[in-house]
Amino acid sequence: MSDKKIPYKIYLEESEMPTAWYNLRADMKHKPAPLLDPITKKPMTAEALAPVFCDELIRQELDDTTPFFEIPEEIRSFYKMYRPSPLVRAYCLEEKLGTPAKIYYKFEGNNTSGSHKLNSAIAQAYYAKKQGLVGVTTETGAGQWGTALSMACSYFGLDCKVYMVKGSYELKPFRREVMRTYGASVTPSPSTETEVGRRILAEHPGTSGSLGCAISEAVETATKHEGYRYVLGSVLNQVMLHQSIIGLETKTALDKYGIHPDVIIGCAGGGSNLGGLIAPFMGEKIRGEADYRIIAVEPVACPTLTRGVFAYDYCDTGMVCPLAKMYTLGSHFMPAANHAGGLRYHGMSTSLSQLRADGLMEATSVSQTDVFAAAEEFARVEGILPAPESAHAIKVALDMAKECIVTGEEKTIVFGLTGTGYFDMMSYEKFHNGQMTDYIPTDEDLAAGFARLPSIDS
Ligand SMILES: *Cc1c(COP(=O)(O)O)cnc(C)c1O
Q: Where residue 375 falls among pLDDT bands split at 50, 70, 90?
């Protein structure tokens, strides 16, 4: 098919939208290792998870054999308000670069939460409502997940309690107000509301908090309040399942025009957008039906997949959550204070970790000064102001497209553009003022985190 026929934006008709999420684990030859109980170190059962998570979400979490889960009608209706998201052919960027590469990006920033996180938030709120719960608790770092969840909860009339990492709470007052606009209550973490918060405050007075710590607080609040459960915006299998909508739409759009991507690139924090984007392509790769190069991009400041170890670890700093076998930097790892680029979680989705360990997915890391430079280069041509997280993928896609100028290769590159960066302008400001620096953790820095990994005999 001639290139000219491919539009700038490939949209899908409503009738072409996915009606089921795809569970990549069903096709994985080596299944991700089970979550373990933090006390008994035995695999978590549905009963043991029930006080923390919604029943249907537990079922999805533990199911690694069912390939498709039907998307309930109510969720599909909500999706239709902001989906399908466009798959954009970056003709303008290609021309500006003078590259023979063909660049596509799937843009997930076209909703008020500003990122892909709404895809899972609406599903999780739906199942909480269906179970008859009063509300849900969660943590948020930069604020995208908290925003998405508060939108989803207000839609279904659920209470939403958000523990926001104190540093972000103070730095991003507008994020906080967006959440409150949608009816959520937002508490800076660590707080004095929870036992774990009080313990962390006593140990580290004046701390600006961390995601791992906010998770511990949110879990404690959910388990201590009747009618509440805890929900999480990344890392878990259920989240990756919901995010498969990104990849399914992308695949349908590409198939419509007979386009075969050579490379698929995504940023990786907890792994949900990347896992969702690559799911149907990775499924084909595992089944031997097609081959793709798949690349996860992370910050050098938080190099989970590139320098972490593949081992069982705690998912939170308070060590109350289940243990997951994943690439990890240790549950006490915190990126350097000057790190502004997001993607700061110490661990990674168990599925993506397994795919990486099996050599099915590559991983690379980039520095934040390069990331912001790439974000700006992209914004000035394609118009979209990217989130710093998304710009990790942009950086690698741009580098590859520039390599194609030298080699003359007409590579087809697809990358995930996960969101917009309007709430990250303080970081952009630092970059513009030349005040942004990079910190690459030393081997000793990382060794300190690895030394605290739990020992699990397997
Ligand atoms: C949360 C977020 C990410 C990273 O999370 P994943 O679970 O790894 O996808 C990336 N980009 C944006 C815009 C985000 O909000």
A: very high
Instruction: Evaluate: CB of 269 within 6 angstroms of ligand 1.
Output: yes
Supply the pTM of this predicted model: 0.97
Specify whether the CB–CB gap between 130 and 153 falls below 8 A.
Answer: no
Residue of 115, 302, 326 to mutate, ligand 1, most atoms within 8 A of C-beta: 115
Q: Is 144 in the pocket of ligand 1 (CB under 6 A)?
A: yes
User: What's the pLDDT score for residue 1?
Assistant: 47
The alpha carbon of 268 and the centre of ligand 1 are apart by a number of angstroms equal to 7
Rounded to an integer, the average pLDDT of 224-229 is 97
Q: What is the pLDDT of residues 316-363, one digit of tens each?
A: 877 878 999 999 999 988 888 888 888 988 999 999 999 999 999 999
- Residue 82 tokens, joined: 């902001």
